[in-house]
Every structure is written in C-alpha cells, then in structure tokens.
C-alpha cells in the first residue's frame, strides 16, 4: 500500500510537481493525498488541482493567534491521515500543535547545506558569504528554524558570475531529485530518527 503524503507549500510548487510526477508510478510507493498552503492563489495549488489532488488553505491572518492557526493546520493535515508530511517550500514555522501530532513524521527541504545559512534566504546568504559550494538539505522538522536531523544533502558549486537567481535555480535542479529519491525511500523502506541520526530502512 502506498504511503500517504500531505505536502505543504507556499510558492511555485516545483518540488511538489516532482513529487506528483514520481507518485504517478505505483512502484514509487507514495501518493500525495492533499496539498496545503498558507496562502491562496499560488502556483503549487494550481499544480495540485491539475493533478486532481485535494487542497486546503490555512492563512495565519484568518486566525486570532498563531497557536490557533497551528492547531487548524495540524487538524487539516490530520484529516487526510498522512504517513509523512513534506514541507516543500512552506514559508511558515509550524508550532507545538503540529509538532505534537507530526513530530518525527514531517520533513522540510531547505536550499542550503545546513547548518549553514538557515532561514528564508539560503541562496542569497550563501552567495553573499562567498562560499564555493552550497546545496540543499532535507531535514526532519523539529522545533527550531532549520535545525532538525538531516536526512540527506546535495552539494552544488557556486560559479564565479552567479546571481541569487542563477544560484537558486542550480540548487533547485539538484534538490528536486534528492527530495524525490529520499521521500520515496522513506515511504517504501520506513525510517528511524535517533538523536541527530536519520536512518532509512531497517
Ligand atoms: C525551494 O528552493 C525550497 O528549497 C525552499 O523553497 C523553494 C520552493 O520552491 N524551501 P517550490 O515552491 O517547490 O518551487
């Protein structure tokens, strides 16, 4: 039976698309059962609708507090009974209600080689720092900002004449297959988190 994925998004949804494409093959072992966004009108929601996948939107501003939003997000995700939640360009920090339900079962793709350059500007910060190598990191979500145990990483070179956009594009080309490969393996083989070590398979 396929693992049930809920994917959380905020943007264009290129990572979501890569997952949807992979899930079209039954041998991949996972199915996207719902896509949730923190804002309406984003490309990722259109991709989900085109693929016939259920969507929901939970906007922070529609709630009295972040706690209430966090609770509603957790409820919305739970209603799809996911095995794994994939934060794929989700630009919000999840809170205690989400973590108490999905801690250890949620992963996030970040466009830098953590622990370097956490936060919302990974490619820009790497370029400004002058590193020669950066990349993308898949983590198991914890309470911090991009601090969770590392599932996998992929490195990309920083070129002499890179702009933030060209670097971001190179990172995204590398992160998509890395995300797809790891989510598929996690779905098919299972995984354990022990301290900071993530092990896929038994
Ligand atoms: C990706 O680069 C991801 O690493 C970051 O946000 C971006 C999302 O892009 N967290 P998309 O919405 O999947 O196209």
Protein architecture, described:
- The chain is α/β, with parallel strands linked by helices.
- It has a single domain, classed as Rossmann fold (3-Layer(aba) Sandwich), CATH 3.40.50.170.
- The protein has six helices and nine strands, in the order E-H-E-H-E-H-E-H-E-H-E-E-H-E-E.
- Strands 3-2-1-4-5-6-7 form a seven-stranded mixed sheet, sandwiched between helices.
- The longest helix is centred in the C-terminal third of the chain and has 26 residues, at 164-189.
- It is globular, with a radius of gyration of 16 Å.
- The model has no long low-confidence stretch (mean pLDDT 97).
- It binds 5-O-phosphono-beta-D-ribofuranosylamine (GRF).
- 5-O-phosphono-beta-D-ribofuranosylamine (GRF) is lined by residues 9, 11-16, 44, 88-89, 109-111, 136, 172, 175.
Overall pLDDT level: 97
Portion in strands? 25-35%
Instruction: Count structural domains.
Output: 1
Main sheet characteristics: 7 strands, mixed
The count of helical stretches stands at: 6
Q: What's the level 1 CATH class?
A: Alpha Beta
Name the hetero compounds present. Answer: 5-O-phosphono-beta-D-ribofuranosylamine
Please tell me how large the radius of gyration is: 16 Å
Going by CATH, what is the homologous superfamily?
A: Formyl transferase, N-terminal domain
């Amino acid at each position: 039976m396929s693992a049930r994925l809920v994917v959380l998004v905020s943007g264009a949804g290129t990572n979501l698309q890569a997952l949807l494409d992979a899930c079209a093959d039954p041998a991949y072992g996972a199915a996207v059962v719902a896509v949730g966004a923190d804002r309406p009108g984003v490309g990722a929601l259109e991709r989900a609708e085109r693929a016939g996948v259920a969507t929901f939107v939970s906007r922070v501003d529609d709630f009295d507090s972040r706690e209430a939003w966090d609770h509603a997000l957790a409820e919305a995700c739970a209603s799809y009974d996911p095995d794994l939640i994939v934060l794929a360009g989700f630009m919000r920090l999840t809170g205690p209600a989400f973590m108490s339900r999905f801690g250890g079962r949620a992963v996030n793709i970040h466009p830098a080689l953590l622990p370097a350059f956490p936060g919302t500007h990974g490619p820009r910060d790497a370029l400004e720092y002058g590193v020669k190598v950066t990349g993308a990191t898949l983590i198991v979500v914890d309470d911090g900002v991009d601090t969770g145990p590392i599932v996998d990483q992929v490195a990309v070179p920083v070129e002499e004449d890179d702009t933030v956009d060209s670097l971001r594009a190179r990172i995204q080309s590398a992160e998509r297959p890395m995300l797809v490969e790891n989510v598929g393996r996690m779905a098919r083989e299972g995984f354990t988190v022990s301290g900071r070590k993530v092990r896929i398979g038994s």
